[in-house]
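User: Need the bound-state model for uridine-diphosphate-N-acetylglucosamine:
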Amino acid sequence: MDKLRIRGGRTLKGEIAISGAKNAALPLLAACLLTDETLTLSNLPHLADITTMANLLAQHGVDIHLNGQGGAHGCQGRVVELNAGTITSLEAPYDLVRKMRASVLVLGPLLARFGQAKVSLPGGCAIGPRPVDLHIKGLQAMGAEIEIEGGYVVAKAPPGGLRGAEFVFPQVSVGATENLMMAAALAKGETVLVNAAREPEIGDLAHCLIAMGAEIEGIGSDKLRIRGKERLHGATHAILPDRIETGTYAMAAAITGGEVELIGARLQDLQAVAITLAGANVAFVPTERGFRVQPTGPLLGVDAMTEPFPGFPTDLQAQMMALMCVANGASMITETIFENRFMHVPELARMGAKITVHGSSALVRGVPKLTGAPVMATDLRASVSLVLAGLAAGGETVVNRIYHLDRGYERLEEKLIACGADMERLKDAT
Ligand code: UD1
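Assistant: Bound-state model below.
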């Protein structure tokens, strides 16, 4: 397995182009199943999770063409054309779904367009049990009959197809909101999703569905109203820039005391992070092309609590913790979205961080300097937090199992090296 070797202590300076958002791209790719016409997506990031979704769609029979470069915002995103005119399988097999939980996003579109679908349950994952009960309950509210058989969700629409319904989410879920919104776009009548997720990726999906002929109101609010259509048509859509990648590089700049301009980044998608970091003496200053991250004083400890959007994103919690490890003073970091999302703590501790976990909160006492060490992580965001820690640490850090990073960060080391980081990928010879 490849590793990353980082020699810490360099101050990052320069600019980084932000790629298309992984978490927007995944549901957008699944949306191609809603029509027999071609869906064209630009600004597609080059990531392992995107390949997994493309493989899943291909085994359903989707015809996929990738056309080199052509991304928005001056980044290197690619353009993909997807045509689901001839679907050959309505089953999403365990072998693909277990690799990536977002595979469950094919359930709503397949069921809505073809009246049936069989999708493997994703199974456990490193950051908690992550069930799909809300996806299932929402589809049942639309008239679907759903059984769990042999580890699969086996779903059937009622005769005449799914029916619009009102569904109140007992808990905010990004994926379930996306699945139900796609299903509702082809259901009979109106669907109202109450306590829906408000993440920018939901808005991006809604805009693409509208371009495909759907009628959706309430984008950006927690109440989405979708009027179902008999059929949807082809469309062209540019995937929005990745706010988590943006926040990660912002914290990478901050942890080295550096100044980096994030090109194509959208400050409006990171307000909670901007406010939190302002308290830590890190400013996000809007520029013509995005925003610049710069220190306004010594790095200070501040508290952060993860919440659904517009709150502080759980996908930036590990990176924030790495940053707080070298801040002046203490910081309380509370995780409210996922159980078991502190796996980076023992690894950061191996680098000299002082962190005590109490249930869903971690008390971080800042230290003047971390020290490099061999480390390893079990999920995407935990891995990148170790890269950040390595950038600030004295000496050498080797991050193992970096396949996690390749799931969610496009050309990570290239982007950081261009800003002065001293790091290299050590290829596994085996
Ligand atoms: C998405 C993101 C992920 C991010 C997460 C929260 C994608 C591809 N992934 O994941 O990066 O960390 O949002 O912002 O967009 N839950 C249930 N039942 C369900 C569904 C969810 O109990 O049916 C729970 C989960 O276990 C979790 C919480 O709801 O505790 C939020 O999960 P959800 O918003 O659904 O996350 P994902 O869509 O999987």
